[in-house]
């Protein structure tokens, strides 16, 4: 079945109505499109995705209580793409904007399929303004999706004015064979600092194409962390653009892939200004017949002198049937830069295993400990202690 | 109980780029209970291979001979079973375990071994108390317990960490694989004291070294000279002094 | 760049001009009419007196090529190539297929002398000052479409080694050619390999029988001379069980305003315990300072380690060509086989290079090493593109990749695009890449010790490339170092 004639394509175009033009004519990308070389969207094609019906707020509330969410300054809940006012509360310091402001939409995500799809079918999500100098504390955003053959396309926007701060815990979960396609646009003004932790715990049957795009001005900081551990087919795309001097972005992630699931972390770090730094650590653990994908590009413009970019991507293959595909990429047009990347794929280190066993630790326990250490080291990169603890507890095998 | 560690005709090989290379070529060695023996030998004589084979490293394939410890066939056991039985290898290059907290690692190891020996496990408080005492004894900073195992440790710190593990695991046979390499005199003394403190009727040790220096601090009961995968000479502590003065040549010639 | 001596004279020559090899040789040429169609393919085959099977093979390739599109994925830009606007066959008129050096056009011999290739064995054996005990090198020289001379054939024949133009091998050793031609790079592998298969005119053929260690380095020297010609050489090297061979390849072309196309195919076959070392110093004309002219170098090179413990090693120093599109690869099909890729790519002016390798691990215990050094200067663009694939059967497979890029000036680009695919848990793949500029500290240190800025850059660049240069046979290494320096002339200050 080719992309442009698939059931999904027809259904989604129909639902988009006038906005179908935003989808372009190419159809669902095939593996021949470089960006989708390792991640086949074939499973997406086979379903006539319908709009997701509203869920009962009381049931949604019950689901929330199971999540052990940390208590923050605010909680915003969406269920099947709809805002749950009764479950949500925002701190007084921040404003929920209204409506879409497409004129100011950054072109950051142009040509990316997940963003095109979201643009055509978007549902209003969180639209948050943190005023200048304000520290809004921790905000928890929960997106729950339930149902079969339904899709949601939430569009969130977070704007941090000069020097503002916010920590966002972005929890995504659900039940059923649904498709979710959320987009988050981030603006970090001068000196603003956004910590964004995504806990992707979608249903093991779900398809997910999540995307975020962040523009970061001078001395701004976008510190993102993604835990990818749900979905039959789930890509998280993290796009960032450093637009002022001394800005920083972190694009860290953990992927835990079991069953026959595919998780994909695709990122673009665009250095468009001099003197910026970027850091990326992505670790993937594959068991059973899990398939992992990492595609990470660092692009350094000619003006972006004194760029300091570092990227590390490591995968542990724990089973005979697992498969990892990585494509770390450097595209550099400035000469006075320090950029490097590293990638490794392999099993647990035999020296480490032997060392632990020679100290009396049984093999199975030693393996578990090494896998945990591999993951915990990455979680340690999250500065906020509350978020770090929450994420550690969300990992399997946490003691 | 003369048969404590008993090695007879031990042969072992390693895969060198697809072709097996024999390293131990029929090695005999007995270490009675309560004795400290030293093995000295030139580079490439197979000293480290011997220590790995005794600890159960899989890359080394045993092709002949036997090795028993406390009457059990050592070669049949998994590395962790050997540890539980009381074998401890102090690594020449201790392995780094990024992300594995040193204190947690030590406690897991100690309790796994205690469990296997039918002893009661230590709770967190009791363990920490013990670990603090031991670190202080080795002039180690308490900070080292909080760091990842051997990560960012200096050479001397790594070796001390090995001795700390040894003290905590209370082995009955310690194999020290060139523990003295890269140590300054103060660190050397601390390591030696760590070993000496365990000496007693139930503790044996095999000290593998290049230099006589370490043997001034850990005085061995017997010294063996190893070359070409075999023990070619055995004697008292005086052999070490003799070697330091005259080198390996005469022993090699005598063995021809 | 031939595998030869650098005499003092040659060194001086190097210093004088940026592209010293840009002279044109005045030889009467026999040119096929411009354009490409089945008749041209037939004409090439006829001129080469090829058997019918070879013609059929070419025609099949041509038909396949017609159905194919030019690849678009590489990070290179060029105006569309008009494949009908080139001559697909050119050869020196006088005596085609010379049987001995005496029959070769003296003008041609002069060309090779200018380039420093000692076609005369006597010259070779006379040795050159400072070279010490130089091992002789057998040379096959390809001038536009035709192999003009192969030296040392007798010595090689005594050892049982076949080293001859491929056109001759098609006639003399059809069973070998039939068996292996297109077995590593299938005709339809890509657009340029299909084109080459249809119109290749000459190249080298090497066969090293079982257990034979080839007694000398083999070398082929390629030169494009005639205007508007494409060069499509085809090289096939077969090393039987336990055979060993080292093969060197050098290339130059005259300075011309228009772009010339070079689309070679090289196939290597290594059987059990065999070893093939293939070294290239590519110095095609890169175009002028405005990006006018230069060679389009679209090359498909691939080797297969068929037997257990076979080894294939590619070493390349790429300094020339307006565009380089080239990925010498290894298919590791034999247990414990080894693939290596060592590369230095220098781009300056308006050059573009998209080069790298593919290591396909099919069998257990296979190992591969990739060391790629990229230096970009001027307004050039250079990309390392590499694939490492561990297939499910590649138990204990190992790969180590190191890619380092050096940028000189802020108008150039350097890119690294590795693809890492692992389907075996016991396989291990490690990739490291860095991009930086020449260290100011190093530059200052050298200059404070009396080096000029340009000398200092040369020194540092040579150090940066050392891991690769040391893989080259000695004679090549010296030439390569000089080339690096020349290629970067005018890139600092």
Summary of the model, kept short:
Chain A has 399 residues and is α/β, with parallel strands linked by helices.
3D structure, described in words:
The complex is a heterotrimer of chains A (about 400), B (about 260) and C (about 500). Helix content of chain A is about 15%, strand content about 40%. Chain A has about 400 residues and is α/β, with parallel strands linked by helices. Chain A has one domain (about 5-350). With about 260 residues, chain B is an alpha/beta fold. In chain B, helix 6 packs parallel to helix 7 (about 185-200). The mean pLDDT of chain B is about 90. Chain C has one domain. Chain C contains 13 helices and 23 strands. The longest helix of chain C has 15 residues, at about 50-65. With about 500 residues, chain C is α/β, with parallel strands linked by helices. The relative contact order of chain C is 0.10. The interface of A and C includes residues 302, 320, 323, 338 and 344 of A. Strand 21 (about 325-330) of chain A pairs antiparallel with strand 22 of chain C, so a sheet runs across the interface.
Largest interface: A-C, 34 and 35 residues
Summing up helix and strand content along with how strands pair, one would put the structural category of chain C as alpha/beta
CATH class of chain B: Alpha Beta
User: What is the CA-based Rg of chain C, rounded?
Assistant: 21 Å
What best-fitting shape of chain C do the alpha-carbon axes yield? globular
Strand percent estimate of chain B? 25-35%
How far apart are the first and last residues' alpha carbons of chain B, in Å?
34 Å
Mean pLDDT of chain B: 89
CATH topology heading of chain B: Rossmann fold
**What is the count of DSSP helices of chain C, taking H or I runs of 4+ residues?**
13
- Regions of chain C with pLDDT < 50 over 5+ consecutive residues? 1-17, 95-99, 119-135
Strand order of the largest sheet of chain B: 6-9-10-3-11-12
Q: Kindly report the oligomeric state of this protein.
A: heterotrimer
């Amino acid at each position: 079945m080719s992309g442009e004639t698939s059931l999904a394509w027809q259904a989604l175009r129909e639902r988009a109505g006038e906005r179908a033009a935003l989808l372009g004519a190419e159809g669902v990308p095939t593996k021949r499109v470089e960006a989708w070389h390792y991640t086949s969207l074939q499973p997406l094609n086979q379903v006539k995705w319908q709009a997701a019906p509203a869920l009962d707020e009381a049931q949604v509330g019950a689901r929330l209580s199971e999540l052990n969410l940390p208590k923050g300054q605010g909680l915003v809940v969406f269920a099947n793409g709809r805002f749950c006012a009764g479950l949500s509360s925002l701190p007084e310091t921040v404003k929920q904007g209204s409506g879409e402001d497409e004129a100011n939409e950054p072109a950051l995500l142009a040509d990316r399929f997940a963003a095109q799809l979201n643009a055509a079918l978007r549902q209003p999500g969180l639209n948050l303004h943190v005023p200048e100098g304000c520290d809004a504390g921790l905000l928890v955003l929960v997106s729950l999706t339930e149902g079969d053959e339904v899709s949601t396309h939430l569009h969130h926007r977070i704007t941090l004015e000069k020097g503002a701060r916010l920590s966002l815990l972005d929890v995504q979960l659900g039940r059923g064979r649904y498709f979710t396609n959320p987009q988050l646009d981030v603006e970090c003004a001068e000196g603003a600092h956004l910590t964004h932790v995504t806990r992707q715990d979608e249903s093991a049957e779900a398809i997910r194409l999540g995307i975020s795009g962040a523009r970061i001005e001078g001395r701004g900081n976008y510190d993102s962390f993604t835990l990818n551990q749900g979905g039959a087919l789930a890509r998280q795309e993290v796009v960032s653009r450093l637009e002022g001097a001394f800005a920083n972005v972190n694009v860290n992630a953990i992927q835990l892939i079991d069953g026959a699931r595919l998780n994909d972390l695709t990122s673009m770090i665009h250095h468009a200004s001099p003197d910026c730094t970027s850091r990326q650590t992505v670790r993937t653990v594959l068991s059973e017949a899990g398939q992992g994908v990492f595609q990470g590009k660092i692009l350094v413009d000619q003006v972006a002198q004194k760029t300091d970019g570092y990227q590390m991507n490591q995968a542990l293959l724990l089973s005979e049937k697992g498969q990892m595909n990585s494509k770390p990429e450097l595209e550099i047009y400035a000469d006075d830069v320090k950029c490097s990347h590293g990638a490794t794929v392999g099993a647990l280190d035999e020296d480490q295993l032997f060392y632990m066993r020679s100290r009396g630790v049984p093999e199975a326990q030693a393996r578990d400990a090494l896998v945990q250490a591999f993951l915990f080291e990455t979680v340690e990169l999250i500065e906020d202690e509350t978020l770090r603890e929450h994420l550690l507890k969300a990992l399997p095998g946490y003691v | 109980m003369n048969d404590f560690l008993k090695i007879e005709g031990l042969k072992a090989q390693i895969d060198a780029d697809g072709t097996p290379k024999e390293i131990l070529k029929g090695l005999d060695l007995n270490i009675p209970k309560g004795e400290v023996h030293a093995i000295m030998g030139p580079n490439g004589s197979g000293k480290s291979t011997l220590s790995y084979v005794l600890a159960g490293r899989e890359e080394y394939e045993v092709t002949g001979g036997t090795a028993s410890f406390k009457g059990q066939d050592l070669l049949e056991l998994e590395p962790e079973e050997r540890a539980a039985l009381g074998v401890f290898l102090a690594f020449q290059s201790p392995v780094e375990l990024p992300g594995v907290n040193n204190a947690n690692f030590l406690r897991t190891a100690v309790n796994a071994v205690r469990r296997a020996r039918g002893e009661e496990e230590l709770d967190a408080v009791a363990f920490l108390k013990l670990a603090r005492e031991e670190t202080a004894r080795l002039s180690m900073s308490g900070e080292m317990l909080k760091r990842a195992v051997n990560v960012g440790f200096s050479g001397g710190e790594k070796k001390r960490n090995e001795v700390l593990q040894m003290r905590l695991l209370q082995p009955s046979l310690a194999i020290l694989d060139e523990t003295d390499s890269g140590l300054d005199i103060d660190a050397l003394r601390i390591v030696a004291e760590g070993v000496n403190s365990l000496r007693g009727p139930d503790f044996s040790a095999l000290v593998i070294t290049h230099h006589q220096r370490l043997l001034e601090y850990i005085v061995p009961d017997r010294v063996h000279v190893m070359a070409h995968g075999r023990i070619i000479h055995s004697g008292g502590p005086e052999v070490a002094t003799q070697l330091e003065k005259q080198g390996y040549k005469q022993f090699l010639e005598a063995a021809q | 760049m031939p595998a030869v001596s650098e005499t003092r004279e040659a060194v001086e020559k190097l210093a004088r001009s940026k592209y010293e090899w840009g002279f044109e040789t005045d030889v009467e040429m026999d040119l096929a009419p411009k354009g490409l169609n089945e008749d041209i393919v037939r004409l090439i085959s006829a001129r080469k007196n090829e058997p019918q099977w070879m013609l059929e093979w070419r025609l099949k390739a041509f038909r396949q090529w017609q159905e194919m599109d030019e690849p678009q994925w590489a990070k290179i830009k060029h105006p569309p190539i008009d494949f009908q606007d080139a001559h697909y066959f050119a050869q020196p008129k006088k005596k085609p297929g010379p049987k001995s050096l005496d029959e070769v056009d003296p003008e041609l011999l002069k060309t090779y002398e200018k380039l420093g290739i000692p076609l005369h064995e006597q010259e070779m054996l006379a040795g050159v000052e400072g070279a010490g005990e130089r091992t002789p090198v057998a040379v096959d020289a390809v001038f536009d479409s035709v192999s003009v001379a192969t030296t040392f054939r007798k010595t090689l024949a005594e050892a049982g080694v076949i080293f001859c133009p491929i056109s001759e091998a098609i006639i003399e050793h059809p069973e070998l050619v039939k068996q292996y031609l297109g077995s590593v790079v299938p005709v339809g592998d890509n657009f340029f390999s299909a084109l080459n298969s249809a119109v290749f005119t000459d190249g080298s053929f090497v066969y090293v029988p079982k257990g034979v260690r080839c007694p000398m380095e083999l070398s082929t020297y390629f030169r494009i001379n005639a205007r508007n010609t494409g060069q499509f050489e085809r090289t096939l090297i077969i090393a039987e069980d336990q055979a060993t061979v080292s093969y060197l390849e050098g290339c130059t072309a005259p300075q011309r305003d228009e772009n010339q196309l070079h689309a070679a195919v090289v196939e290597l076959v290594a059987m059990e315990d065999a070893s093939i070392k293939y070294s290239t110093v590519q110095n095609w004309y890169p175009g002028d300072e405005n990006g006018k002219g230069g060679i389009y170098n679209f090359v498909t090179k691939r080797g297969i380690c068929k037997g257990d413990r076979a080894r294939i090693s590619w070493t390349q120093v790429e300094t020339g060509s307006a565009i380089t599109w080239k990925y010498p690869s290894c298919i590791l099909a034999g247990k414990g086989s080894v693939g290596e890729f060592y590369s230095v790519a220098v781009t300056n002016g308006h050059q573009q290079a998209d080069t790298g390798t593919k290591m396909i691990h099919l069998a257990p215990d296979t190992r591969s090493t990739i060391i790629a050094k990229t230096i970009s200067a001027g307004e050039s663009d250079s990309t390392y593109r590499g694939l490492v694939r561990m297939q499910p059967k590649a138990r204990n497979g190992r790969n180590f990749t190191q890619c380092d890029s050096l940028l000189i000036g802020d108008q150039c680009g350097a890119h690294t695009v590795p693809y890492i695919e692992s389907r075996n848990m016991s396989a291990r793949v490690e990739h490291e890449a860095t991009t930086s500029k020449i260290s100011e500290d190093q530059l200052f240190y050298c200059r404070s010790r009396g080096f000029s800025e340009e000398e200092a850059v040369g020194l540092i660049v040579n150090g940066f490339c050392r891991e690769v240069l040391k893989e080259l046979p000695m004679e090549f290494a010296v030439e390569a170092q000089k080339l690096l320096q020349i290629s970067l002339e005018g890139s600092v200050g």
